[in-house]
Write a structure and sequence with these properties.
The complex is a heterodimer of chains A (114) and B (114). By secondary structure, chain A is mainly beta. Chain A contains no helices and 12 strands. Chain A has strands spanning 3-5, 10-14, 19-21, 24-26, 32-39, 46-52, 59-61, 64-69, 74-79, 88-96, 102-104, 108-113. The model of chain B has no long low-confidence stretch (mean pLDDT 92). Chain B is built from no helices and 11 strands. The chains are: A mainly beta (114), B mainly beta (114).
Chain lengths: 114, 114
């Protein structure tokens, strides 16, 4: 069975602060993929990143960065210099070969205040 | 760009009504998915389809059925809507089967059952 835990239900920060969203996963598979999606108030889930289990390099894309650590089964997401437009619900998800489906965490509601 | 569209953004139905939610993707993707999203629960998979006329149950199929007569279209059917089916419904598609494939989502349908 696979599971994704996003312990932070809601986070509020002031604009320009850095913020980290936590994601912890469980799977018995050695090959798996991790994802982050953003859901703005409009409702559509927007794909942000996909990372496979064999690539532990951290990734940076503009103000976004991701820290993948297999030793702690975590795939955390950091937004640097947050902006109001970053306000959204963020979902972490796991897909492993044995499950054949995407398992989502419960999401973290991020509010960035001006 | 991948485009996934859903027939309605908002829908209000009465208990006992038959409800059809339509989803269309324009990228010739093989796989299509239906999720429901509820606060605190993240996204839960209802049904998915890897090919035309093929369907598989997800985690919460009870009370739902699906139809995939054409590759680009995947319909979710509530045979007799109930108030506990009030939720946000999200459709997704991916290129082909396998854990490496990214799912792309539609804008969602907010269904209210009175």
């Amino acid at each position: 069975a696979q599971k994704v835990t996003q312990a932070q239900t809601e986070i509020s920060v002031v604009e320009k602060e850095d913020v980290t969203l936590d994601c912890v996963y469980e799977t018995r598979d050695t090959t798996y993929y991790l994802f982050w999606y953003k859901q703005p108030p409009s409702g559509e889930l927007v794909f942000l990143i996909r990372r496979n289990s064999f690539d532990e390099q951290n990734e940076i894309s503009g103000r976004y960065s991701w820290n993948f650590q297999k030793s702690t089964s975590s795939f955390n997401f950091t937004i640097t210099a947050s902006q109001v437009v970053d306000s959204a619900v963020y979902f972490c998800a796991l897909d492993s070969g044995s499950a054949r489906q995407l398992t989502f965490g419960s999401g973290t509601q991020l509010t960035v205040l001006p | 760009d991948v485009k996934v569209t859903q027939s309605s953004r908002y829908l209000v139905k009465r208990t006992g009504e038959k409800v059809f939610l339509e989803c269309v993707q324009d990228m010739d993707h093989e796989n299509m998915f239906w999720y429901r999203q509820d606060p605190g629960l993240g996204l839960r998979l209802i049904y998915f389809s890897y090919d035309v006329k093929m369907k598989e149950k997800g985690d919460i199929p009870e009370g739902y059925s699906v139809s995939r007569e054409k590759k680009e279209r995947f319909s979710l059917i509530l045979e007799s809507a109930s108030t506990n089916q009030t939720s946000m419904y999200l459709c997704a598609s991916s290129k082909r089967a396998g854990a490496s494939e990214t799912q792309y989502f539609g804008p969602g349908t907010r269904l209210l059952v009175l």
